[in-house]
Amino acid sequence: MTWCEACDRDFDLGLLTENGDCPACGNWLADPKGAGSVPWHFWLVLIGAVVYLGWRALQGIYWGLQQIG
Ligand SMILES: [Zn+2]
Asked: Residues within 5 Å of ion ligand 1 by Cβ?
């Protein structure tokens, strides 16, 4: 349960909007479940994967150019 001061009542977390807002007045009350609470190392892995795939793509392009030339 989470308390909304504006409404002066509490709401079950399942009743909040997908953004974690109060369903009655729209006040932000809690972090949304699942989305938005991505841990920092997720982004580290994502950036690493993008850099790696970008590097491999560049290697592929160079390989292709060498085959033409
Ligand atoms: Zn409210």
From this structure: 4, 6-7, 22, 24-25, 27
C-alpha 29 – ligand 1 centre gap (Å): 8
- Res. 32 pLDDT band, cuts 50 70 90: confident
- The answer on pLDDT for 35 being more than 60 is no
Residues 6+ apart with CB under 8 A from 43: none
State the average pLDDT over residues 6-22: 91
Give the residues across from 3 on adjacent strands: 10
Distance CA 3, CA 26 (A): 13
